[in-house]
Request: fold
Amino acid sequence: MNRIAPPLAGTVVVDSDVDSLDVTKQVELEANNAIKYRTCSWRKTAALLFSEYICLAIMSFPWSYSVLGLVPGLLLTIFVAATVLYTSLVIWEFCLRHPEVRDICDIGQMLFWGQTWAWYFTAAMFLLNNTFIQGLHVLIGAEYLNTITGHSVCTIGFAAITMLICFVVSLPRTFSTLAKIATASAFFTFISVLLAAIFAGVQDHPAGYNTNKFNPTTSLKMTGEPVFRAWPPKGTTFVGGMTAFLNISYTFIGQITIPSFIAEMKNPNDFPKAVWAVTIAEIIVFSLVGSVVYVYAGEQYMKSPAFGSLTPLYKKVSFSFMIPTIIFLGVLYASVSARFLFFRLFEGTRHKGSHTVVGWAAWAGILAALWIAAFIIAELIPFFSDLLSLMSSLFDSFFGFIFWGVAWIRMRKADYGPGWFGRLGLWGHVKFAINIVIILIGLFFLTGGTYATVESIRMSYKAGNVGKVFTCADNGL
Reply:
């Protein structure tokens, strides 16, 4: 496999020979370090991926299905899962060709011909995306504490408590250490969504049940027995449908972290085992939980996250099992961002691989800054579904689609040289067309998705469905 470009300045280079950049040499270089990074097995990497994907956003699937209908919702679930699996394997191939790559920012610069602006553009999106996800988990932590305690403390206080807990859990410096917490996070999340699906089926009625006859054309939509549909309800708008699709996409699209995970694997060749296992589990869990909760809670009583459609006791029990992932997923993205910044500051110094006061102080300081920024975002954008959609449209367009279509094309050009397109063969041309479609999907996310999300946010504010910024008001489910 050929490289698309020489190593970037500042990346780990053993000597002047590009062929010496392999993983074995990197492991040897850090053999005497107190802090070793290339220590993750494929099982630990799978645990990190499970914790990233098997998360609270699963509970937005019932709402998405209520907007799209069961059949389109399930088909889109499978389509997005397959697309993410394919692009994840493209990332893996790219990282095998360029083993010195540390994160997606290195890839962004390499894809766009080593241009410095590409690195800064990618880095800005990378940090914003991760900090938005941290902010989402600060917001959800406050929602959970309000739900369980009956709003016993100002919501800003609950958000601050969540932020502080997340900061402490973020302090470990390697993914191998975090993988142990990730396993517990994924397990408890699975229990949480399983209980939510069971409770949706066994409760007498969903939360907010009203005995009046259901009439979807009136303002009193929360009435009658739960209704579910195979196809989108009449009157579904582009904004509503796109927001629902973006919610589904956000849950699947996590390729932004994959280069960072592969950079800490002992044997990156094993990565497909991890990503295949996670993808199969995702399709099964997301489809079953989304369908079961939607069918039993009904279109008219659906909330996002769907814990809000459960009666109080069931809601509190199932939501409580989500505590580890509320904390850990934000922690994971904070660690990825901190790792990115820390490596740029201390690459080639003893502070990177040893327990020094300067190293640990810098690490803690970076994390503190990231979590303060996340807290501010959580207070400025106090809504769940639209925040998921906003992140999908702005960041997933590049990190989920555009980058990897371009990466495939650049790698084929490196393999075949001048006149590469004519040498692809039939199957090569089919794959070329697939990657062009992937790029176009990303552009659609960026344009149509951003428009739909901004319009949805505007409508929510106009309807008075969104609380004020930095407010003590109860945001519990």
About this structure: Residues 425-462 form the longest helix (38 residues). The chain has a mean pLDDT of 87.
